[in-house]
Amino acid sequence: MKKVAVCILLGIILLSCSTQPTDKQEENSLTTEVQQYLDAYTRQFVDLYYKSSLAQWETNTHIVEGDTTNAYQTQLTSEALAAFTGSKENIEKARQYLAQSNKLDSIQVRQLRTILYAAANNPATVSDVVKKRIKAETAQTEKLFGYNFTLNGKPVTTNDIDEILKDEKNITRRLNAWTASKEVGKNLKTGLTELQQLRNKTVQALGYKDYFSYQVSEYGIDVPEMMKINKKLIQDVWPLYRELHTYARYELAKKYGQTQVPDMLPAHWVPNRWGQDWSGMVEVEGIDLDGVLASKGPEWLVKQAERFYISLGFDSLPKSFYEKSSLYPAPVEAKYKKNNHASAWHMDLQQDVRSLMSVIPNSEWYETTHHELGHVYYYMSYTNPGVPPLLRSGANRAFHEAVGSMMGLAAMQKPFLANLQLIKPETKTDETQELLKEALNYIVFIPFSAGVMTEFEHDLYVNNLPADQYNKRWWELTAKYQGMIPPSPRGEEYCDAASKTHINDDAAQYYDYALSYALLFQLHDHIATHILKQNPKATNYYGSKPTGDFLKQILSPGASRDWRELLKESTGKELNAEAMLNYFQPLMVYLKEVNKGRKYTLSENI
Fold first, then answer.
1. Among 540, 449, 549, 462, which Cα is nearest to 502's?
2. What is the pTM of this model?
3. Is residue 197 part of a domain?
4. CA–CA separation, 34 vs 604, rounded Å?
5. Residue 20 has pLDDT above 80, yes or no
6. Is residue 171 part of a domain?
7. What is the pLDDT of residues 286-329, one digit of tens each?
8. Which of 248, 313, 458, 569 is 20 to 30 A removed from 496 (C-alpha atoms)?
9. Which of the residues 372, 434, 455, 457 is marked catalytic?
């Protein structure tokens, strides 16, 4: 009898054990549940994202003064996307599942973090603030790109202004063009003040200190570390920048017939509206790229950039790219305006890829077409079954810019140009002048991007910079980092920072560009030395399938991999400025010789 009782008891226990889920079964059940949630979220997100992208595309490509239709559609679709991504349900779900992240696979965890990050930009807990911010951002975009620039009472485009600042030797005409370029800031100051407050309030609702901190967090680091990285970049390039600054002061004074060499560079002297690129100072004899390209036409530039990527083993652009993109300036007789800043768009996170440009046949746009298609091919590379739509972005934001800028650099090197018969193979050029021209672009950009722009936006959002100090702070930073001053005092009726597109519509992210420059030289150096076995200063990527394979290895994972691991795995090194400094090192000897006897006005260290 006792034996029977024991057997029955053992049977009950065994039956009970067999019906209780194991840890593995619970884990499988959880991953299935999470995947179902992610799939449902993705379907709705992609639908709303596409509708929002389409509305924004119209707002950027068809701006009609007084017509609010596009602005209204952009506001509606942006609000719908914001309401979904910032919903309480999605915030709670993402948090609930992330609390059990140790039971999920890494791709699921990354998607959940992406969902929570997106929610912080549009939390339903402050839906009124989110709606106000969306409305304010739409209005700011229309004011910025719908602005009528005039010079001497006549309408001009930003391309016209850029050409004057690049080539004009008459100081008065340069001053007039520069001044005209800054007038747009007056119309944008009130909007920027409103956006400063609304952007901060939006992300603070989900625990971020401010909007700048929120944007930095996407890199997986905090604000002090990001500022430290940018400061280090400036310090690394400062000795060379100091030489370039001294060179520019004396050479430009000579060019403009000025007897006095100023201690600080007047802003209207340099060949760029913000002083971020001085390469227009130097013309390399033997290469008349503008002249050659003028006969090619704008369509050739875009098609040739595509042929470059195809030569590396990438696919042709989809037919829809040419049907739906806005690649050339709006016709003179057009009743509308368009955004004049080049950009690439992944409209639906799937197959609809586009570019917004205003291509004219010159060397600047030749480089830009290669850059923008770099973004487009990045989109196409990570649009693959292994990368969910929520992770279809760069390894970090700087990666996107680095790839585009690197391809622009490669397309401008002499062997590459000779391969395309844009110059003759036997063309002799002054290699020092070539290097100088490149340094006046890449090195000069670092103090502007890592210093002026990054610190201004840090102060704007982290320190809540008062509106009555915008211009004062902007010019303090340009003096400190660029050694540049305005032609005359600029009071707070102006808002010169707001004349820079990114301050308005790509806020608190400009350090992306600074990091991308260090990254592009790191990647370029690896391609030149380890794949092409060529001098990094004289490469020809064209037709190199191994180079294409290397790029695909970096591009195709999108944001499904940790960016530090991906970089270390691809190049064997962590992010650093070593390759950039090595590239320009020979220029120091030349500049020190040229600047001998000249007065240095920037401090030796910063």
1. 449
2. 0.88
3. yes
4. 56
5. no
6. yes
7. 888 999 999 999 999 999 999 999 999 999 999 999 999 999 99
8. 248
9. 372
